[in-house]
Amino acid sequence: MSYHHLTISERIRIKVLSILGYSTRFIAKFLHRHHSTIARELSRNKIKNEYVSTSAHNNYLKRRKNSSHSSKYNEYLSNLISEKLHENWSPEQISNALLNGKLSFKTIYNWIYIGKLKDISLKNLRHKGKRKKKETRGKFLIGNSITTRPKDVKSRKTFGHWELDTIVSSRGKAKACLATFVERKTRFYVVIKMKDRTAPSILKAIKS
Questions:
Q1: Positive or negative CA dihedral for 12, 14, 20, 26?
Q2: What does residue 194 show for φ and ψ, rounded to 5 degrees?
Q3: Which of 10, 86, 104, 199 is deepest in the core (most CB within 10 A)?
């Protein structure tokens, strides 16, 4: 299961799948999340009995901003944790063996996710346990990868940068899927049905 918080892209998929009538357990399995995470997300972010993904994500960002004021983060601690992660330590080992539990491993995961640790991303973490099953969805970026685009794309300061994601049902052998287009600054999104995930179908969805 994933340790980091739900992303806006995941929240949009939750909304689409819930509208299509899929259960919380199916959505959790589809996103490789715990069932309780999806159930809690759907129950606490409804407006007039309807889950609103953009409102849910904005509420999360507000909570994260408010909690950052009481953070234990400092440059020395950041450098120390980054050094140990590069040495292949896990956040759990750093929390328990190095810091004697004074900083939770969840906080370390959160710092990694929001980019507080220098030159560290989730890719630096050790992978334990069973291999993750291949996902039944595809992800495409319109244009260059987000990581190679200008900094204002990542900070969402300018309008017009879109991400494309696809949702594919694991039921039956149908090739049809849904394409979700997300504008990074406003988080405005559009959902378009495609007959398959071939390049011509994707281009047709983009042009529409």
A1: positive
A2: -120, 150
A3: 10
For residue 25, give Cα distances in angstroms to 41, 51, 188. Answer: 13, 16, 26
Distance CA 179, CA 205 (A): 8
Number of H helices, E strands in the chain: 9, 6
Domain 1-66 matching CATH 3.10.20: the answer reads no
Closest CA to 92 of 74, 70, 107: 107
DSSP string for residues in 46-96: EETTEE-HHHHHHHHHHHHHHHGGG----HHHHHHHHHHHHTT--HHHIII
Domain ranges for the chain: 1-66, 71-124, 134-208
Contact 56, 5 (CB under 8 A): no
Nearest to 16 by CA among 160, 166, 198: 166
In this predicted structure, what is the pLDDT of residue 25? 92
**Is residue 140 pLDDT above 50, yes or no?**
no
Take residue 195 and report the two structure tokens written for it. Answer: 């007959």
The answer to whether 30 and 67 have CB atoms below 8 angstroms apart is no
